[in-house]
């Protein structure tokens, strides 16, 4: 059975292995150079007046295309294993009628499925794991620059978290078994692939929106209002309250900011309008003085921003939990497949 | 002698539709069983139940004393050549034999190789490139070389031309004799079965109409021709299977154990085809028909 599984899978496996090997070769060749550039740039920029922010920004912008391209590859990889390895696994047999050939050999279909699911699933997980390892290694310097960039790409944030560490392995396992399950239910390859893609995409969107923020209670931090979290200051013509627009940023550059609110001295939420004089005093618009006096005034009055976020120190804990969730989902679907398989004919 | 297939009140339902109802059979070993019936009568369903590809909805079935498809040992005892003789289009003939060898502990490699050689199949050619007849032969080889005690074939020759059909059935019969196999073979064509079967099951409208050894069936069914008369007035031991009347003459096909003594009848022998056609054209449900007429 292992032979048959391999015989049926080898073309797809070879194509995937070739693509991943090509990617790995490119990364292996360019990776050390990229790391060198980053290291030399960092030592060079410490003497500059603005610190390293300009260098980090330039470094990120120079490598943005590769960074986003690799992110896309890593986002697509689990979905592709579900689409091209998972969905056709059973539909192909059903469409050709060969399930009636193979299920009548001296091997139970439970064993048939166990070996097919096991071997192909492990291959999917290995492919995702190796790709994640290679991409994470190569992108190390860019990730650091990206976190410092505006708008940033924090490691805990919804984009990078999904394509680094061990979660791609969980995604691949889930996507693969999802494809098999949908194929078993839908029985035709193309609709099964379409449904697999739709369901997997929905789960991938739902996870960071509905589940991941609640894996641990978020950390709350109060942040002074300053240039770094200011989106905009608004003055109404002829006076009136100050309009304050703030950005939701985690105090920790690699953390994941969930929400923020402006609070007054007693801790109550304030809408964006702050009752402070804009006709005179420190918060009156004055191009010469800049906003720093106003920030000091707001601090004196007790206004500050409260941010709830997941710090980057939780990265691996979250990775483990989320991989576990996807593994359990995959195992659940696999169990369903085994029960359902008896009724397929 | 043990039964090769025993079914008791066996039924299979898909949604609301019963594909097979109340099927009771007891087929002894060592027969070549022809399962005949029109398309959609439930032949494939019955065969799928027998090899364990489907679980029954009602009743029970045992094949060679075991639950169909329940264990690798049971699977090893029953060979199955499915409808349209599926093979893996991308795998070569040799790889199909390897598949058989890997998945069947009782695989007879010498037999498989010998058959492939005799059929003139190149081991390196892909199954997708074979003709329908060659593909059917390959599927049969897989079924035979696993050395089953019972080989089930679902319309194996339906897609073949007459020559390939004959070669296939000939090969099947030789193997059945050599390996002392029991065979169950379905077809909607009587002529396919005529040459090979010694046991017959007629399945019409999800129901077994008649089952038994062919010789006995032919010996107990008679065609009666004589002056026109009402079939209801026949002796109680004569069951009318079909009746046709002209103005003056009646032709009846009856089943009876006893000899027919009525001198008014001319008693004729019937062929297998006559027998099958009589059961196929028989009103499907004689018990329900009168009630329907009352409701109308």
From TrEMBL, chain A:
The keyword NAD does not apply. Keywords: Membrane, Signal, Transmembrane, Transmembrane helix. This is ABC transporter permease. The chain crosses the membrane at residues 65-91, 112-138, 165-186, 193-211, 323-341. Residues 1-35 form the signal peptide.
TrEMBL record, chain B:
This is ABC transporter ATP-binding protein. The keyword Phosphoprotein does not apply. One of its GO terms (molecular function) is ATP binding. Transmembrane segments: none annotated. It comes from Actinomadura alba. It holds the Pfam family ABC_tran. Residues 5-230 form the ABC transporter domain. Keywords: ATP-binding, Nucleotide-binding, Transport. It comes from the Bacteria. The keyword ATP-binding applies. SUPFAM superfamilies: P-loop containing nucleoside triphosphate hydrolases.
